[in-house]
Description:
Layout: H1 3-29, H2 32-58, H3 73-102, H4 109-137, H5 140-169, H6 174-198, H7 208-219, E1 227-236, E2 239-248, H8 254-269, E3 275-283
Parallel strand pairs: 2-3
Antiparallel strand pairs: 1-2
Amino acid sequence: MNKKVKxxxxxxxxxxxxxxxxxxxxxxxxxVSIISEAIHSxxxxxxxxxxxxxxxxxxxxxxxxxxxxxxxxxxxxxVVEGLLILVAAFWIVYEAxxxxxxxxxxxxxxxxxxxxxxxxxxxxFVSRRLYKVAKETDSIALEADALHLxxxxxxxxxxAIGMFIIWLTDLHxxxxxxxxLVALIILKEAYSLIRNAYQPLVDVALPDEDLKLVDEILSGxxxxxxxxxxxxxxxxxxxKYLDFHLxxxxxxxxxxxxxxxxxxxxxxxxxxxxxxxxxHVEPVKDID
Length: 288
């Protein structure tokens, strides 16, 4: 089992644990903000399961039906996770409005403070691990999962502070107010996640830093009549794709131009990975 799959599985188990303790304490205390956090963790669990299967599928080699591989399944996963977060946010707002109407006091405030603190600590370490592996493997699915948990840290800390203030002031109306603030943070998270995951699905070019690096590497091979143009790029999950036209002297042999392309590919792949390159060689006199 590769590193991405193991890390995604860790997120599933941590979310299961947090859902159980949040639901138990939320029901005992009657706190809508804790219940909203349980809903948030449930959405996180669904997202973790989606991420788990998407990283397994994205790692499969290209086949007849998917000649470019399965990388974009991670982007689809990220979009679905973002939509799930939107559902969670509106659900939390609905529960908070009901709480405004009911005016029921919160019991066992100390349990709420404890469970929210535990949640923040667990998610801190799990999200840090997810981010680390996501950066190492350029996995949008794991990055999306990490973003879920990072937001859960902020909301858990916010709810814990809110519980403490209610305990000091006896202002139980703060509970639904905190829940709505949690929902607003989640909405912002959903927007960022959907935007980042959706862009590769419509073949947006590689980031500017990658394209700048491509230009710097290619420029190192340009001498005499050799030049390049029509550079195109895109991304599919963690995999990057690049193609361009390479203009070479008309008298250069096929073997010489092939060796030049090999050197260029080696230079690009040593700096940008994983990268799939397609070079179209054409003689200078045929430049269009």
